[in-house]
Amino acid sequence: MPRPKPLVSLHGAVNFERLVPFDSKAGSLPLANNDILVMRRAAGGDNLTLSISDINATGSVDIAQLTGGANNDMLYRVGGVWTGTGGVGLEFDGSSMSFDGTDIDMTSGGNVNVDDAGAINVIGSGDIEQGGSGNIVVTGTGQILAPFGSAALPGLTFNGDNDTGFYRSAGNRVAVATAGVGQWEYNGVSFEGMIAGGPALENIDSTDVVPNVLPNRSDLNTGIGSNGLDELSLIAGGVEGIRIDEQAGTIINTSFGNLVVDGSNDIQMGTGQILAADGSSTVPSISFLSDPDTGLGLSSPDFMSLIAGGQQVARCREVGNVQFQLKPQSSFQNSPGEPLLQFHNSALGFYVPSGNIISLAVLGVQQWSFSAASIESHGGGGAGPTMLNVSASSSVPTLIPNKADADTGIGRDTVDGLALIAGGLDCLRVREIGAARAVGFYTTTPIIQQTGVAVTAAAIHAACVNLGLFTA
Fold it and tell me: Residue 14: is its pLDDT beyond 50?
């Protein structure tokens, strides 16, 4: 029985369809412009093969071929020799793509495989590109699974800047790389700089001794923490050093240790104050790095102490007005050569030789001393004058020419009267009586100057008796 010829439909430009028999042995079927070719295989006939060729003056070249096989294969081939795959599929031979069941395989160079489960696998070294402004969208519960990558080649990167992006640096760790160098890493607990000694931001609750902002990621107990709302704590070695606190719009800085300024830098204040601890009369609160027991302390309110070597040497207080007091200690320099209160040079000033006595030193030598009892000269080899702070009388002098002879000097017998005392006895008295001078020797009543009296032997005798020179 002769084989039936296949029927070919031709759709022309006027959309008119005609069926014509076509014998493949007869060669090619010419198509007019805008013709559409439709081929049908008769029932029970052989496999249908359609070749699309370019026929020109030099010969015929196959462009593509579609073949229907016994298993309903549809194969598309460009060059080379086609071999069947079975099932239903489409195969590109050479740089080929084939439909195999429900799989899509792109082989040679870049290898893309879509398996029965819907997974897309890129096996080779080719790229998957999305051009234009379209998006790559993953819906449902699917994931985009990227390679681990490295700092040099991040698993998630950018077209044209392939050494910048994200990569998996270790288990449960995500890192950021720029220019092929790892810069930052997140490990689930902290966000850290990857350079040696880099910073870290800890994902923990901070306290006044536990920081969560770390300047050095290897020093976990040094950084910035918080004791509560509106507070910052500067922590070193797990110990709070400085606290910055906002209270009613005021910033309060609290130091829990020594504040040391190295070098030649200054601590400068505007209109604020430096508020130090009170200290005491022997423990300064404002001190010096090399001499911490010397400085200023507060012994009581409005009572500031000057402290040297842990001892109070002077104090200043406000009691209605300002008072400054020196408080010498036996352990300090306190001598004529090194006065406690000095003027001009170290050999001129005041010092305290003993309790309740102040001495004036000049050129390193004790000259005068002051006490509650007297003002005393220390010149003249110990024979200097003294002024006693006692009530004077006719037998107790207060102005003593020689301090070694305390009962000889000038005293006072009464108002407007002086007594010249020797050995505790008044030897001469001088008075003012009625605006007139009066002098007496060895008598209790001075002789008043006589006027209008003739100088006779009897008058002279009477005057000498009154002076105590003669007896009556």
Answer: no
